[in-house]
Amino acid sequence: MNQIALPPQSDQEETLPEMPFSSHLIELRTRLMRIFGFIIALFLCMLPFANSLYEWLSKPLRAQLPPNASMIATDITATFMAPFKLNFFVAVVIAMPFILHQSWQFIAPALYNNEKRITIPLLASSIILFYIGIAFAYFITLPAILTFFIHAAPESVAPMTDINSYLSFCLKLFLVFGITFEIPVATLLMILAGIVSVDTLVAKRRFIIVGCFFIAMFVTPPDALSMTMLAIPMWLLFEMGLLFGRLLEQQRTASQ
What we know:
Layout: H1 9-12, H2 21-46, H3 50-64, H4 78-94, H5 96-107, H6 113-152, H7 163-180, H8 183-192, H9 198-203, H10 205-219, H11 224-255
Helix pairs in contact: 2-4, 2-5, 3-4, 3-6, 4-7, 5-6, 6-7, 6-11, 8-11, 10-11
């Protein structure tokens, strides 16, 4: 198993500031309060547009419904709670860079300079990939899945989706794809930590590909289309992680 090359001696001898445990707790509380306050502020600012956000979310479904069909609310509070939940989810997603920044400010004092140089690009990449995953789910995966299910319904059945059920389905899909698109970052982290080498991952590639389809089978709706549209990106993202991992190992070898 390949190990990470030791950082330069100057980094090894670098003295990190020491803080008592109570100071860590105070700092953590401060960061969490800032994160919570920022999310609440975003939530309140977007609250007047909550219904418009839900209209935007439901657009792919409404485009597939027959002319005589519409979305329904089976609960008296659903017309309020569904846009409310979506508004909070969007606030958290928009606040993700701020959340990561506050997390970085909390852990940065405990890192050496060489570790900081690696961590910053990984944090930036993770948030970008998370957004790309959500965009992929909304613009590509969601319309394809809805088209399949709507047109697969018997002619005697008029599709009328409950707004809460549709919201839960979409949020689950967005989270699954957002987390899935973090695979390149996770792969690089394992290589950097020396947990696994690129050669080992290449040797296990066929098992990993099968694992991608196995995981997709459990986290997507029960149809082959949804599973394939998640498993293939997972595989390609894994290959991307391998590519960058190979470049990282070559750079590390050349610097020794």
